[in-house]
Amino acid sequence: MSVPLLTATGLTRHYALPRTSLLRPAPLLTAVDNTSFTINAGETLGVVGESGSGKSTLARMVMAFETPDAGEVLFQGQNIHALPAPELRKLRQQFQMVFQDPYGSLNPRRPVGWSIAEPLRAIGEDENTNRRVKEALEQVGLHADAADKYPHEFSGGQRQRIAIARAIVTRPALLVADEAVSALDVSVQAQILNLLMDLQDDLGLGILFISHDLAVVGAICDTLLVMQHGKPLEAGRTADILRNPAHAYTQSLLTAAGVHT
Amino acid sequence: MNRRLPTNLVIGAVLVALVVGVAALSLVWTPHDPTLMNIRGKFADPSEAHWLGTDQLGRDVVSQLMAAARNSMTVALVAVLLGGSIGVALGLFASAVGGWVEDGVMRLADLGFAFPALLFAIMLAAVFGPSLSNAVLAIAFINIPIFARVTRGSANQIWTLDYVSASRAAGMNKFVISRDHILPNIAAAIIVQATIEFAVAILAEAALSYLGLGAQPPASSWGRMLSEAQTLMYLAPQLAIYPGLCIITAVLGFGLLGDGLRDISDPRLSRQR
């Protein structure tokens, strides 16, 4: 069997809370506790949990924005937290991220084409940059002319498409989507989810899809990881978990999402 | 949307325009040569030829004030630009690198704050000798920690924005991110600070020159005019009043302009007072 696209083993991350006493060390908050998962190429792993369950911290560790206190993330067999900075920057072409807030993830002072080209500029690509930006825009269902416009000229759904265009312009193998549809209207959510699934089919993307909404995750994910208070509660095939949740917490999430079991 | 400009901005802008205008004018024209002495015509009263009279050496006061305005603006501009660019670069660097480097840079800045600014300038002048360029260096030096702190504080906020994270995810070099995303976002805060520090620099130059550590004769300076007039306070008090008024105008103008710019660039701060 080939190496999985991404393997996370025993990821743990603590944050120091404000000190309560001069003499005792600052208390620790365990944001993520001993969490492991695997993403295969072309598959989607959904991470669900309420806010504060540690799922965004998980994303930040997978993106190597933060270093775990214990455990490791192997991307295509390489430990991303152990790589020297220049090599990590090069490898970043292969795993990209879509953020929650489409109004905050694009620099308002720059045309969107400039923002989409950023991952290309990072490796110093110049000749084909314009063509690839236009291709990426068309892949996400926008007109190539959009490159010269500014973010404020687009709606939230369109901006999220632009953010996705930036994420796929380097043809990555893994996409991390942190609450990527939570800020959008329900009708727009469906469009963006469809777009993500189409892109997955076309590009063979592995997707780490983070959401608090089990209905959304249930619709598009192959496997699921349910988290609460930083701890992994259960993991497995989406269909199995939805049909037969092992934890009362998962059951309550199902009820909240209105998914009928 | 027809919002009124803050009063302090308008008053500040008018005063600054006046001072800068006079300084610029002195480059091409002054009523008399500011250094031309005429002992027979000393302590002259205001007249057609000498609008504010002459001083103890018969030099034209208006011409001296104008030349001093130019010197003062030049010193403040060079000092703030020099100290500001070093400070901004340090602040951006500290914010980009983070960790113990950031802590180290900021503790050094704290150390800079711990020195009383003017005393430090006096020390520099004492060590390297009194001259206008040393005064510029001293004023520039005391500006470095101020700008480093303001830059680092604002930059740290920008680093948490999603589009900066996106840029990091793209594999962009931290220094390129600083240039492309951070600096344009904090430019307003830096310009506000620079305007306020400009006022401080004018005052510092006047103080150093008053102590004889800044502009050397025959260069004109408001501070030096003050110190020369000091011994003649009872004989010719106007000689001290004119440069004093000039200093007040310039410092007040830049201070109000900086406050006003802050009010329009960050509406959250303006209503708190």
From TrEMBL, chain A:
Molecular-function GO terms, alphabetical: ATP binding; ATP hydrolysis activity
Superkingdom assignment: Bacteria
Taxonomic source organism: Sulfitobacter undariae
Key words of the record: ATP-binding, Nucleotide-binding, Transport
InterPro entries named in the record: AAA+_ATPase, ABC_transp_ATP-bind, ABC_transporter-like_ATP-bd, ABC_transporter-like_CS, P-loop_NTPase
A matching Pfam family: ABC_tran
Family indicated by similarity: Belongs to the ABC transporter superfamily.
Protein name: Peptide/nickel transport system ATP-binding protein
PANTHER family: D,D-DIPEPTIDE TRANSPORT ATP-BINDING PROTEIN DDPF-RELATED, TRANSPORT ATP-BINDING PROTEIN
Keyword Transmembrane helix listed: no
Single biological process term from Gene Ontology: transmembrane transport
The ABC transporter domain, residue ranges: 17-254
Automatic annotation (TrEMBL), chain B:
Tree of life domain: Bacteria
Bilayer-spanning residue ranges: 9-29, 75-101, 108-128, 182-204, 240-261
SUPFAM superfamilies per the UniProt record, alphabetical: MetI-like (SSF161098)
InterPro entries: BP-dependent_transpt_permease, MetI-like, MetI-like_sf
Keyword Transmembrane helix attached: yes
Membrane topology listed for this record: Multi-pass membrane protein
Gene3D superfamilies the UniProt entry points to: MetI-like (1.10.3720.10)
PROSITE patterns with a match to the protein in the record: ABC_TM1
Domain ABC transmembrane type-1: 69-258
GO CC, alphabetical: plasma membrane
A Pfam family hit: BPD_transp_1
Alphabetical UniProt keywords: Cell membrane, Membrane, Transmembrane, Transmembrane helix, Transport
Family named by the database record: Belongs to the binding-protein-dependent transport system permease family.
Record-given protein name: Peptide/nickel transport system permease protein
Annotated organism of origin: Sulfitobacter undariae
Organism placement in taxonomy: Bacteria, Pseudomonadati, Pseudomonadota, Alphaproteobacteria, Rhodobacterales
